[in-house]
Specification:
Blueprint lengths: L1 H16 L11 E5 L6 H17 L3 E5 L6 H8 L7 E6 L1 H8 L11 E17 L7 H10 L5 E4 L5 H13 L4 E4 L3 H9 L5 E5 H10 L2 E6 L24 E9 L4 H16 L1 H8 L4 E2 L4 H22 L5
Parallel strand pairs: 1-2, 1-3, 5-6, 5-7
Antiparallel strand pairs: 3-9, 4-7, 4-8, 4-9, 4-10
Helix pairs in contact: 2-9, 4-11, 6-11
Amino acid sequence: MARLHRFLSRCALVACTFGLPAAAQTPPVKLVVGAPPGGTTDTVARNIGQHMSQTLRRTVVIENRPGAGGNIAADYVAKSAPDGNTLLVTFTSFSINASLYRKLPFDPVRDFTPISMLARVPSVLVTRKDFPAQDMATFVEQVRAHPGKYTMAVGALGSSLHMAGERMKMMAGLDILNVPYKGTAPAISDLLGGQVDMMVASSLNAQPHIKSGALKALGLTSPQPLPQFPGVPPIGDTIKGFESNAWFALFGPAGMPADVVAALNDAARHAVASPDFRRLLDAEAATAVSSSPQELDAFVRQDITRYAEIVKFTGATLD
């Protein structure tokens, strides 16, 4: 009888927390974002939160905690109660930081509960408009013929775009000098002005300049062509095996009950499948992607290993 009472109490708690009429008595679900308002991560979180609120029949709020490549937000969620009320909307740096930072205040696998993948965003290799190559094959030939001559703008050290460029150099044996910037905007500005030769840019930032002819697009980091970039092939068509996509996903603290995770995963899947979320991502050449918690867990573990190899190649470390 005592066991039955505990079971019924548990069911009542989950029902109250995740969507039945008593939900008004519960606190809001907080989606913590490790980026400032207005960016892609914040936009993804707000759209996802709106739809999750409808499925869960609970208020969902966004809390921005930018800084340290997403580590401040991740640490906050890792140390929160595992009750499903505090979640993390994070991005590719979650995997990169595991090897980039000498010491993290959390473990990206042990201290989190995977809930669902949300989206994947490709990037594009762009060069100044007068760069002496018209396609990826001649680009590789040109750079190999002049080791150390060409420069690559890096908007943020340790970012997925930085790592995509390093992965390309590593796989193709290219010697290109990195030029770090404090943000994507000044990096693109110098590329437009011809002060640097190339950069790996997000599809959102690069698209207007490609359309205007101010920048030349040579290859996509996605494994397939994209309709938003007609005539631009995947880099992997030339550098076999190359692929690099930024991603966004939903996590909670470690130790969350399975039924709470299942309810949140269901809400996230419904959000990802919504037509307006898919339209939002389509405008950025991105793809809405959901997953099971188990699939996200396996993906992150593999991603951490993959980026550790690239970080080691770069020699980059942060405190």
